[in-house]
Amino acid sequence: MTALWIANVHVTDPDAYGRYAALATEAISAHGGVFLARAGRHVQLEGRDRARNVVARFPSVEAAVACYNSPAYREALEHARGASERDLVVVEEVAPE
C-alpha cells in the first residue's frame, strides 16, 4: 500500500530551511516520493496552524521510513533543526474500493 508523508511546519529561518528543502527534495525523490502538496493554500480547521504543509506519496510506509532514515535525508535535517518547528507523520493509504 502507498503511504503519505505529511509535514506541518512553521519556518523560523527561511534561508536554512531553504537548504533543507533542496536536499530533502532529492532524498524524497530518490526513495520514490512524489509531492502532492507543498506549502500551497490551506484552511486550518482544527489544531495548530502552520503555514507550510507538505504531503508526499511514497510506494509504502517502509519506503517513507527508509527515506527519513537515509543519510541523504539526515543531511537535509541538519538544516531544518533550529530553522523550523515541525510535525511529521507517515500514514498508510487505504485501498480504493
Automatic annotation (TrEMBL):
A Pfam family that the UniProt record links to this protein: DUF1330
SUPFAM superfamilies in the record: Dimeric alpha+beta barrel
InterPro entries (UniProt xref): Dimeric_a/b-barrel, DUF1330
UniProt domain DUF1330: residue ranges: 2-94
Transmembrane segments: none
UniProt xrefs under PANTHER family: BLR0684 PROTEIN, PTHR41521
Name of the protein described by the UniProt record: DUF1330 domain-containing protein
Organism: Rhabdonatronobacter sediminivivens
